[in-house]
Amino acid sequence: MAKCSECSFYQEIDDTKGDCFGHEVQADRDTSECPTNAFKPKEGE
Question: Rounded CA gap, 19 and 5, in Å?
Fold first, then answer.
């Protein structure tokens, strides 16, 4: 399963968490648990 840190909308805050459309998410969170249901792989992945 892909992780939030692999999403193009994920903006890293630090090594363990990031921001996704104003929601703080853990970097290793499964994208199936995405609070916005907006997972899009980063370019080249």
Answer: 10
Give the pLDDT of residue 44: 76
5 belongs to a structural domain: yes
Number of domains forming the structure of the chain: 1
List for the chain the helix, strand, coil content (%; round to 5).
Answer: 15, 30, 55
User: How many other CB atoms are there within 10 angstroms of residue 5's CB atom?
Assistant: 18
The 10s digit of each residue's pLDDT in 1-45 is: 899 999 999 999 999 999 999 999 999 999 999 988 999 999 876
